[in-house]
Amino acid sequence: MERAARLLYTLLWWLALPLLPLRLLWRARSEPGYRARIGERFGHYADPPSRAGPGRRIWIHAVSVGETRAIAPLVERLRACDPPPSILLTHTTATGRETGRALFGDAVLQAWLPYDVPFAVRRFLARFRPHAGLLVETELWPNLAATAAEAGVPLYLVNARLSERSARGYARIAPLSRPMLRSLAGVAAQAEADAQRLHALGARDVTVTGNLKFDVPVPDALRERGRELRSAIGRDRPVLLIASTRDGEEALVLDAMSRADRALPAGTLVVIVPRHPQRFDAVAALLRERGVTSARRSADAPVPAEARVLLGDSMGEMFAYYAAADVAFVGGSLLPLGGQNLIEPLAAGTATLIGPHTFNFAQASDAAVVAGAARRVGDADELVRVGGQLLADAPAREHMRANAEAFIAAHRGAVDRLWAWLAPRLGFSPAAGD
Fold first, then answer.
1. Residue ranges for the chain with pLDDT beneath 70
2. For a Cys-Cys bond, which of 83, 226, 234, 277 suits 320, CB 3.0-4.6 Å?
């Protein structure tokens, strides 16, 4: 049954392969990075450059921006070993690859993870010959797991999370998911609930080390960029940030604003930052259709006083947006999409709101609400109403900021716990990365 399930899965990939280059070129219209090194997606890699170093190679796969930032403290632990290993960093998204380049420069090798077909995965493993692989959060692929096991490359799932909803999905395809999870050399989960779900689905050597994102500091350069952005907006102007929005959420917020135009203090600027850059122009068109006076961050100019909305159409500035805002709402949570990372605005000291749908970050979201570090709203109307109340209440915002600071401090230390568990499995001393 398990063999038949993987054969069917692989057949579906083979059927899709001829269309995948077209999909990459389509995405490259708004994100040119997808046009780079397309051959790597199919396992065609140039020889690794000399900067890779002579030591054993540790491969880390971080699909996109959030995962790449989260593993920065772990990369520093690896680089502090004597001798340091060569680090290979793979991504799936263009923004993830750009973030990796910005964070680590030439200190790591970078490549695309190949599509999950056996021939491409075998080429990838043969080219780079990693000593071990670290998959971040939920990046699990059946052929990758099986081929790595055949090649003797242990795979560890780190900073792992698995929502109840996703666990039900994995259970429905158990002949495919169970051998994949069973093949992992170990799992370091964010929370006990994640660990229990992964273990029940077949994972072994499961431990709880916490969420690495609590250990990621806000970069000083982005704090400064946030101050510059706030100057461009106007320091006395109330700022409500609607961050990481997904398709459909911007319309909900604009509708709520029109229904309660007096809920926000006079002069409030609403900053909308879509989650995906390919949607920047679509959201700009939506603002024009609604007759909303707006400006674009990409203009890199002072925001006109008459603008009601600033469209955050820039890359790599999310921390800066959070630092510039008085109140921030974390998107992906108005609709049943699971929500985005709320740790970033908490770390920036911004009063934080989340919607009803946060199953991708359930443990962190629920704990933040209990701690008074964040507030949950039920819909877009409540978002506008509560956001307006907080904008008008500086003591309430300061109270949330203090709660957030304490909440972040209480949850730090995940990188220490992960390194203590992981280092001996990789052949390093836990003291080597200190």
1. 47-55, 432-434
2. 226
